[in-house]
Amino acid sequence: MLSIKNLKAEINGKEILKGINLEVKAGEVHAIMGPNGSGKSTLSAVLAGREDYDVTGGTVTFNGKDLLDLAAEDRAREGIFLAFQYPVEIPGVSNINFLRTAINEVRKYKGLPDMEAKDFLALVKEKQKLVELDAKLAGRSVNEGFSGGEKKRNEIFQMAVLEPKLAILDETDSGLDIDALRIVATGVNKLKNKDNATIVITHYQRLLDYIVPDFVHILYNGKIVKSGGKELALEMEEKGYDEIKKQYDTATV
Amino acid sequence: MITDKLTATHNFLEELAKQAGKAAFMPTNEIGLALQYLEDKGIPNNKHEDYKYCNIEAILRKEFKTIAGKEIDLNIQDWMQKNKCADAYNICVVNGKLSSDPKDFPEGVSIVSINNAPTEHLHNHLAKYAPSNSDALIALNTAYADRGIFLHVTKSFKKPIVIHHINSSEGNLFFNVRNLLVIEKNAEAEITEFYHSSTQKYFTNNLTEVFVGENAHVNHTVIQNAGVASYLVNATKTHQHKQSIYTNSCFTFSGALVRNNLNTAIAAEFSETHLFGLFVTKGNQLVDNHTLVDHLKPNCQSNELYKGIVGGKSTAVFNGQIFVEKDAQKTNAYQSSKNILISDDATVNAKPELEIYANDVKCSHGTSTGKVDENALFYLKARGIGEESARKLLLQAFAHEVIDQLKNETIKERVSELFQESLQD
Ligand SMILES: Nc1ncnc2c1ncn2[C@@H]1O[C@H](COP(=O)(O)OP(=O)(O)OP(=O)(O)O)[C@@H](O)[C@H]1O
Ligand SMILES: [Mg+2]
Q1: Residue B270 is part of which domain span?
Q2: Is B122 a residue whose pLDDT tops 50?
Q3: ipTM value for the complex
Q4: What is the CB < 6 Å shell around ligand 1?
Q5: Domains of chain A
Q6: What pLDDT was estimated at residue B388?
Q7: How many angstroms separate the alpha carbon of residue A242 from the centre of ligand 2?
C-alpha cells in the first residue's frame, strides 16, 4: 500500500528526515516510536503533503501512485488521513459544515454526487457514537475551545467519517485520560480491516496494549534505526533510548 | 501648487454649477458657509490628512474631465421585478432621485423627494448634523445637492425599507445627493440602502443626515455593490437622542472608489451605537472607511467591528475615531478592525484614534492585519478540501460575525449571496 524509499526532507535548510525506508501493507498496523525531535511528526506531515517541508530525495508510492506528486487535498482524497498531534482550531467554521464539505469534496474526486443530507446526518450520528463524542461538539467551530482530549477524539471521529485507507495517528494518545484512551483505541480497532492500514506514532506502550502493532520502528535522528515486532516497544519502554542513542551517535562520528 | 489646485476646484465648481445649480432646499446661509469653505480649502487631495489615501481632487481631474453625462430614463417596473427584495418596502432611487411612488407604505412612514420635504423638518434637521464647513465634500454637497430623499418614520414597523440606488446614464455623471432620515421618538425602523451595479462611469457625493429620536431603534444597513465604474463618497451623519439605539452595517463588495464617512454623535444619555463593516476589495479598488463615534453624554455604549478581505492591487483604509468628551462619564466604547490580505500587492492602512477626555470610562481598540491562517488551510486540505474551497471556507468564517448580526433574514440572505459572489475569481 505504502512504500517509502530513502525519503529525505528538510525545513529552512535543516535536514530532518535523513533517508527513511518503510513498507506498509494493507491490513497492517505499524508503530513508530522515538525520542522527541527525532522527526516523527515531520514524517507524517511530509506524507500528508505539508508544503513547508522540502523533499530533497527518495520516493513515496501509495497504491501505485507517486504520492509526492499529489497536492495535500488529493492525498486525502486518495485515502491518506493524518490525525494531527496538534489539531488546529478554526473559529467560524462549524465542525459539521467542515465534515460535510470534506466528504463531498472526496466524493466529487471519486465522481460521486454529494451525499444526501439525511445520509450524512445518519453517518455522523453513527460515528459520534463510535468514539463517544459529545453531539454538541459537532455544532461548534472546528476544535475551538475543545479540551485537549476532545480535540484528539474529534480527530478519530473525522477519521471514522472519512474512512481512510491509511491512517497516520500522530500521538493521538497524548492528553487522553485512561477511559478516553480506551474509547479512541477501540474506535481505531473497529475501523480496522484487511484493506486499510494504520501507522501509530506514540511514546507509550499503553496505547499499543490496545492497538496491537504488527511492526514497531524506532525513528532516531531522521532515520529508522531499528525495526521489530510488538516486543520491541516493550523493550524500549523498559530500557529507554539511551542504548540506541549511544550506538547510533558513535556510529555516525 | 495651491493656486493650481484652486484653479482645478474653480473649474470643477463652475461645471457643477452649470449642471446642478445651487441646492434649492438648503438655507442660503449654509450655502454661503459651504462655498466659503470650498473657496478656502479646495477639493481634498492626498495632502489633506483625512484624505491621505483618497485623492478626490486627482480622481475628479483624471476620471471626470467632463461631468455633463446625460441621464437615461429607466423602466422602474421591470427593474423592480428583477431586483426587489422580498418581504420589504422597496424604493427606487435613480441617479439620486426618488423614482418610484411609495404607495404601499404603512401608516407612520413616508418618503418624498428632499425637494418636497416639509420645511419644519428641513428647518429642524438639515445641515445640523453635517456642518457645512467641516469637510469639503460636505460643503460641496451642501452647496450643490439637487436631489435626494426625505424619509420620515413616526411609528415602528418590522418590514425593512429597502432603498435601491441605481445609476442610469450615458456615463461621466457627477451628482450630489442629500438625504434626510428622521426617525421619531419610540419608533423602530429597519432601513437598507442598496447600491446596485452600473456599467457607466459616475461619481456620487452622497450625504445622509440621520436623526434618531428618543428611544428610537434604527437598523441602518448599507450594501455597496456599485461596480467597477462607480465612484462613491458616502457620508452618514447620525445624531442620537436619549435611550436610542443606532446600528449601522456597511458592506462594500465593489466600486472603483468607495469612501465612507460615518459619524455618530451620541448626544444624550443611555444610548447605544453599533457599527459593523465588511469590505471585500480587489483589482485597483480603493475602499476607505472613516468612522467617528462621538460620545457627548454619560452612560452610553458604542461597539464597532470592521473586517476587510483585501486582494488584487487594491487599497483598503480604516480610520476609526472615538471621542469621549469630558461630560461622557461611564462610557463603554469598543472598536476592532481586522483585515486579511489575500494578495501580496494589496495594501491595508488601519488606524484607530481614541481621544478620551473623561476619566471614568472603559475603552478598548484593536487592529490586526494578516493572511489566511496556513495551519488552518493545511488542516482543511488534509481532510480532502481543495485549496480554493478551503480558502473560501476560511474567509467565510472570517466574515461570518459581521453578516450574522444582521437581524432581517431577507437582507442577511442577500448580503450572504453578494459576499459569496465577491469571493469569486
Ligand atoms: N520550522 C522548523 N524549522 C526548524 N526546525 C524545525 C521546524 N519544524 C520542525 N523542526 C525540527 O525538526 C525536528 C523534528 O521535529 P518533529 O516534530 O518531527 O519531531 P517529533 O519526532 O515529532 O517529536 P515529538 O516526539 O516531540 O513530537 C525537531 O528538531 C524540530 O525542532
Ligand atoms: Mg511529534
Answers
A1: 71-372
A2: yes
A3: 0.95
A4: A 11-12, 14, 16, 34, 36-42, 85
A5: 2-252 (3.40.50.300)
A6: 93
A7: 19
